[in-house]
Design brief:
Helices cover 34% and strands 19% of the residues. Helix 1 packs antiparallel against helix 2 and helix 2 crosses helix 4. The relative contact order is 0.10. It is rod-shaped. It has 7 helices and 12 strands. The protein starts with 9 loop residues before the first strand and ends with a strand.
Amino acid sequence: MGTPRLTSDIGPSGPRAGFWRRVAAALVDAVLLGALNTMVRLRTTDRAALVASILIGMAYYGFFEGGPSGQTIGKKLAGIRVVRSADGQPLGWSIAWLRHLCSNLSGMAFGLGYLWMLWDRERQTWHDRLSSTVVVPAAAWPSPSGAPPSWVPPTRQGRPWLALGAALVGTAVIPVLLASLPDPGPPPPPRPERTANVFDPLPDELAPSSPLASFDNGAYVVGRDVKPGAYVADPSQDCSWDTVSLATDLVEQHGEGTTPQVVELELGTYIRSSNCGKWIRR
């Protein structure tokens, strides 16, 4: 394995597309496909969006790389194209699909399959080798017109099984690394929606020095701000109150109206009251 060369455009059997041209082409294609997949994702479910993303990718690369020019939009802008390594002819849909699917192996191994071209004799990535294709400058090799290319590509591409083995090893390591990551645990339960006339409890530094036996409108933690027990309020207008669990943030009791209100306050909860006036412990 030789020293990586980022700027060389010449392989031993003829011209090859350079590293940065291929990177530029891949970025353009990624932006185009990403924008299209985002529009689909906004209009459908996650599962349908995943299926649509796979089909869009296969259609895009099958149509453009499998066509006579061998150029996606990104490759066309970068002035490169992909051809079969054995005879320099267009890929066709089947090989274009195979190359696109194999590109997932190149990406899953932390991009090693893409960087492989820096050391490869024929400047091939893993998916180039697995699909028997090469990427060449469009200026050095115009679209096929029946005439043979000015250079003869190799019929045997070095050690393709080495690239396949490296791809399989790289993709096998990924599940092991993912399994070693700490489990983030289940997501927290959703917080209930709160109306505009409901308040959050005061922070500890602003809480009363000792629990109170009566309280006005607002939010109070039982045991810290107010004493546990039964409380009664006689509102002069339409009031609303509820008690909320400190552990789950779910409403446990609720009341409203203009008639006298009674609530039993327990430890581990807080009460939030609006327009109920003064609550007095029985």
